Amino acid sequence: MSANNALHIAVLAGDGIGPEVMAPALEMLRKIEAKSDLKFRFTEAPAGANHYRETGKSMPDSTIRLCEEADAILLGACGLPSVRYPDNTEIMPQVELRFHFDLYAGVRPARLIPGVPSPIVRADQRGIDLVVIRESTEGLFASMGKGVVTHEEARETLVITRKTSERLFEFSFRLAERRKARGRVNGGLTCVDKANVFKAFAFFREMFDEAAQRHPEVKTDRLYVDACSAMLVKRPWDFDVMVMENMFGDILSDMTAGLIGGMGMAPSADIGDRYAVFQPCHGTAPDIMGQGKANPTGMILSAAMMLDWLADKHGLESAAEAGETIERAVDKAYADGIKPIEFGGRNGTADITKAVLAAL
Ligand SMILES: NC(=O)c1ccc[n+]([C@@H]2O[C@H](COP(=O)([O-])OP(=O)(O)OC[C@H]3O[C@@H](n4cnc5c(N)ncnc54)[C@H](O)[C@@H]3O)[C@@H](O)[C@H]2O)c1
Question: Can you give the pTM of this predicted structure?
Answer without folding.
Answer: 0.93
